[in-house]
Amino acid sequence: MKKTIAAMAVLALAGTAMADNFSYTDMNNQGSWDRPIGVGPSISGLGPVMYHVYSWVSSGGVHDITSVQDYDGYIHLYEGSFDPLDQLTGLVAADDDGAGGIGTSEILGFNLNAGSTYFLVTSGFAAGDEGTFTNRVTPAPASMALLGLGGLVATRRRR
Question: What is the model's pTM?
Fold first, then answer.
């Protein structure tokens, strides 16, 4: 029984360690594009706006993606590919103003597919909105709590 509990704890920790968990700071100065409004189907007429794109291969799971900008920013999440001239292909999530208002954006509780390449595009809301930002991709607190709760339930059930 102790071996089973220990094995479950190791699996829970391994799942936690494999989750996407990183942050980076940069400027939205890699190019300009006409950004989508949310996840589409329309393109904003407030541009073109400057953007920055960051890509990674996800280990999967439910994540929170947050951004703090020193300007009025916008984030868009693409899966599989990103082409600034084909703004709607691969677009899976977007946010203008997060809970912190202008200068914040957030995509909360989003399920990233393991092995998929994601592209996080940070841009301005309108032409002239540019500057520095900090983006964070972290395991969603609710998913971390469920991992802990699952281990607790398994431990209590064996007694």
Answer: 0.81
